[in-house]
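Researcher: Structure for this, please.
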Amino acid sequence: MEATKVLDAKGLACPMPIVKTKKAMNDLEAGQVLEIHTTDKGAKNDLTAWAKSGGLELLKHEEDQDVFKFWIKKGE
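Model: Predicted structure, token format:
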């Protein structure tokens, strides 16, 4: 999946992956995609809920060993 920007939030505990994701999303334009890498096990629920409440689209998520990867598209 093609991402406009990659955010490395590995090693950060809740709520920092969300805080960093929100800040990174503010730098993107509508339609662009942010790829987030985190090791926080709670990020799946947190980022899914946050994206939904913020009008963003969670395109995909996967787990690669101990790293959780998310692709979130900024809404129009």
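Researcher: Any notable elements?
Model: The longest strand covers residues 57-64. Helices lie at 16-26, 43-53.
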